[in-house]
Amino acid sequence: MKIISGPLSMFGAKVEIAAREKGIDFELVMVPFSQQRGYEPRNPDVLRVNPKRQVPVLMDGDLEIFDSTQIFEYLEDARPAPALWPAQPKARARARQLEHCSDEVYFPHIIRLMGLEETPDDPVAQAARHEAAQYYRRMERVLADREFLAQTYSYADIAFYMAQLVGARKGAPMTKETPSLLAWRDRMTERAAVRNVAGTMARYLVSIGEAIPDFLQELV
Fold first, then answer.
1. Are the beta carbons of 4 and 46 closer than 8 angstroms?
2. Which CATH number is 54's domain given?
3. Within a domain: residue 83?
4. pLDDT (tens digit, 0 to 9) for every residue of the chain, 220 residues total?
């Protein structure tokens, strides 16, 4: 199995964490990246497999797929244990919904912050931070009676951990207003697979002169 990712790809990191959690042997290929040129030149396998020209891409024998959520589903089918979706249909549906919301409800607000790091008072930045804070409050309520977002550790946790990591980098960090969420993040950061992947990303950020969130300092 081969996973093609990038040094700052949140979505690629999601896939790598999941594969490590499942104990899957894989080759990790990091595509070229620089702050000046971005992901250029594009990896030919990424161009061939993904019409969106983005990582991650997974290649397993004659199977070539893209999109982190689709890759999650394949990994779960190919390596059912340890399970990263809940066993019961309703619980699994809720976990899938949370994973989707992390990518499609929360993360678009973080995308709006990109490029506005030096102008935090910009109305667009203020609105994006407000919406991110609203989402944190929602997840705080979800965690009121559980340790993980879908009760058992799942892809929902992996997805939101990486999304909030980018949120913290871009000016929308969690605060003491959501103590259950902060405790959840600590539990996530202690997991070996998460520490491996998040630590690699943190060290890369330091190597290019970028600041890293406080909760990643111990991983550098």
1. yes
2. 3.40.30.10
3. no
4. 999 999 999 999 999 999 999 999 999 999 988 777 777 788 999 999 999 999 999 999 999 999 999 999 999 999 999 999 999 999 999 999 999 999 999 999 999 999 998 999 999 999 999 999 999 999 999 999 999 999 999 999 999 999 999 999 999 999 999 999 999 999 999 999 999 999 999 999 999 999 999 999 999 9
User: Do 108 and 196 have their domain in common?
Assistant: yes
Do 12 and 65 lie in a common domain? yes
